[in-house]
Amino acid sequence: MAKRASASRSHWLFKSEPETYGWQHLVRDRRTFWGGVRNFQARNLLRDSIKKGDGVLFYHSSAEPTAIVGVAEVVADGYPDPTQFDRASPYFDKDSPRDAPRWYCVDIVPVTALAVPLDRDRLRGEPALADMMLLKRGARLSVQPVTAAEWRTILRLGRVDA
DNA sequence: GCCAACGTTGGC
DNA sequence: GCCAACGTTGGC
Asked: Which of A4, A29, A33, A100 has the fewest CB atoms within 10 Å distance of its CB?
């Protein structure tokens, strides 16, 4: 069993369109696999870097408003995304070999909603978040790293006791 | 609905 | 291995 390089957990931000799968769906399901991600950079994070115990900011994209709305936690390390082998799934990938899966997912559970959801204006107004990947032009990565400082700032602004 | 930014594909 | 064309993302 490999020990993590650091004792402290890592932090991430996951984007989702609330009409497809929003915070309310995660609360309803109480646990879900974060699958259907079809981008190699995000895949690498899901497969190699995102670990059980890590913290996740849940972000609603293409929404009104677009906002960070909740905190989740990773409860299973990366494993092959089952939807890539499911012919009935919109995420089916005929080119992904069974013995060398191309796409990965992790499992997450909801921890708490932000008492104050943080929309983009609110995030942009916070100097401590000036370098957040989410706020960078053209940052489309749907699974992205969040620094410990950004994490603390967002939980404070969102009135999350942690 | 628009369109800028980006990732992927495929011709060469 | 380059790069134009294409498809997608996602804020506005």
From this structure: A100
